[in-house]
Amino acid sequence: MKSCLFLFFFFLFGLKTLWGQEIELTKKNESDSSGVVNSSLLPLVAPLLLFDEEKEKEERKTKKKNLRKNTWYGVKTTKGSTRRSLRGQEYLELFSYTDLDRKINPYIRDVYWYDPKEKSIQAKGFEKGMGYLLHGPYQRTVNGAVVESGMFYFGTKHKTWMIFDGQGILQDKEHFQEGWPKESKISYFNPSTGAIEKITPVQYGLEEGNFYHFHENRQLAVTGEYKYGQKVGLWTEYWDTSSSPLIRKREIQYQEKPYTDNFKPYIKAEWSKEGKLLYQKVQ
User: Fold this and answer.
1) CA separation, residue 56 to residues 51, 53, 64, 274 (Å)
2) How far apart are CA 174 and CA 282, in angstroms?
3) For 210-255, what is each residue's pLDDT tens digit?
4) Domains of the chain: which residue ranges?
5) pTM exceeding the 0.90 threshold for the entire prediction
6) H or E, element range at 15
């Protein structure tokens, strides 16, 4: 009898503990469960224009003058370099950078900057005060041979980028406009007004980078990332609220790395148009 009572109270104690933990987790989830988006880094509306042909013409006019003054696209820059040895190979990067304060383009996935502390070039994680945005010509050499060259515009790849082999033979050529590959696919609700419906970044014939879909009122509708032509990471759909703030509608989890075998995308969470959490997958 005593053993039965002991087991009964042990069961009640364990149930109370688990119930208490469940309440605590629920409260924690409730505090993080709102569908309202407050991130200042997330683009709220579609860009008005991506590829500005008139701007390119003006840049060509000032190119020769810029070469003499180390001024690129109207911005005075500082020259920098990094050097390292790895497995008998000598790597050298020559570049220009600016200390001009400029807001990062939230649409572009890869923003390149010089980290003076690590003495290296980074493509992610830039924050004000951490380093300097690359701006102007860039060149990378291996054992003295140029293997990559191009231009940067406030941290984004710009104009023509070329890749060479060790013998100086051109292997590939890409064209960018302030970080957007010019192969990118852009569809419009109304081409005459420039009202963008979808932006799909494309490199080498495959989707690569951040994807954006907008509502007709230019508010963000869907965002996600492509790698090597496949959806990766968390894709988010947003309600058409016709005003800010953005409210999430649904999150869909895709594979973290492309070509992951046996992975099936799943709905991670759903919200009402008022931002109330309706469903959340238990981890």
Assistant:
1) 9, 5, 14, 44
2) 43
3) 999 999 888 899 999 999 999 999 999 999 987 668 899 999 999 9
4) 35-50+184-283, 51-179
5) no
6) helix 2-31
